[in-house]
Specification:
The chain is built from 25 helices and two strands. The chain is mainly α and 605 residues long. The model has no long low-confidence stretch (mean pLDDT 91). A two-stranded antiparallel ribbon has the order 1-2. Helices cover 67% and strands 1% of the residues.
Amino acid sequence: MTFSPLLRQERLAQTMLACMAFYSLLAMHLYLPHLFGIGLQLPFNVMGWFFIGLMTALGLWNWQRRRLLTTRLWLGLVVASTLLWVPFFYLHNNSVAGHALPRMLGLFGGLVFYLALQQCRFNERGRRYLLYCLQGAVSVEILLGMAQFFVLEPGNWFGYNTEVRSPYGIFQHRNVMSSFVATGMVLAIYLWLHEAKTPKRWFLLKSVWFSTVLGAGAILIVLLQSRAGQLGLLFGLLLLQPLLWQTLIKTRSKRLLASLLLIPIGIVLGVFGLDVFDMSKRSLSIYTEADGRFDIYAHGMRMWLDKPWFGFGYGSFESAFYRTYATWRELTPGVKPLFTEMGHPHNEFLLWAIEGGILPLLGLIIMSGLVLRLLYRLPLVQSLAWIGVLAPIFIHSQTEFPFYHSLPHWFMVLVLLYVMDAQYGQRRLLRTPPQWTRWPVRAWGVGLMLFMALGLYAGQQLTRYAQNDDHTEAELKAVINPLIWYDRAAFYRHHWQLTHALLNQEPAGLLDYAAWARRFVIHTPRAGVYYNAYLALGSAGHEDEAQQLLSEARRLYPNVQLLRSTRIQHARNHLGELTPNMTAAELNDAIPLYDNLRPAIGGAY
């Protein structure tokens, strides 16, 4: 009986590693038909949170039986995260704060998962296996990317566009794939530099593995033509140089040097592939021009300086950005309008500062400082190497929004921080939690799994509904968990109402749609929703309100074709031709309505 706690601890660590390996090698790369988007709108992210819920439940299931093991870093991250939560409860500007709840729960869920990993108390070998799992995840994505580029044919089940031929893996976006692969390449070098040389057979196999990641990853980094990924890889490799040269001087490893040469060879092959294969090529001007990001950052800074203390309110970025930009554009002659459907300023620090003011910005700075403080305890070359491993994702978060597009990026950062913290951090033993706390903790893990399982099925229901021209209202009502797709489900539900009201000339239904649209554009001001609401008010005979709404939409989006006079007049002319016996498809052919709520994915970046 003396060794039962140790046996239980060892089994917990083994079970957690098995779950980690299964997720990293298989579940992370799940593809199901979907409606595109970000976050939980992508099936592989839903599956990822299911496994995080599973591993959290495993790690914390019996946490009340012994003292909690944690570290100063985790405690500091928890304190800093409270600063990010404070603006969520502001009373004067939190009318749409619910739209920020998913990212707040994502932050909370990540920290709880981190705590669950700490309770497994992995030894050095176990922590290394965790890094192997991350490397395995990158390897699978590289295989998937190479298959997309070289193997898949038009009309493939994966939905991969063979004409564009951008090998985005499971992520559906070149920049997200690129930063993930870049992180794996830097991690491969780091693992090699710390790999035990015995037994020789396993070392040779791992050497081949790491070499393959470096060569194939370099090819993909070029083919993806992503500035964020290329810049992250460059910084990561530069920060690894001191440790790399130190190792080469000591060992004079020809195998390591030969493997490093695979990076420039892969780059050359990638450039060759850009010229030889028929694919979408980006102009070389992308490396010399700031494009639209300069305008986004500049106006984002103006917004923060306008309300530096409390911000514009959580969940309000998209609406506040376009309304304030329209005002600034009117006061500044010669300024061009920006593209539409942008829900993020392409900089993580800037997003929190704009919406929440100084407190969340301070919280993010403290979090970054805590990580640097942990690495300050290491020799300089080791500190720089770890910063290099984190560099690709961090740089990507300052030029785009990878954490909202890809849970694997958040997962990778959490595991990397845990490994660093467990190896170099200062441990703290907290007192044993009260017995009653086990039920809320278990409910979080199990509830997260149940919510994501139902959400995965709900996503398939909505996808079938949207892709089927003969869909019915009953199909929409049958969606079992619309919370993951809350805005999209509400949009489809009210679009059905608008279609029915237009065909049957029901003023009450038309006015009800317009009322919903006015509430919707407060947090998501889409030009198409304005357009639909304008037609609803016009058909209901509320011409003054319709013109007022149209003027507001044109002020925000002066360059949107849907709001041009010719499109508006065309739609108004056909409204009188609608009859109750027409189908929804026939109505859309005649007008058409805006029937596809695109996610705010940041334009073409």
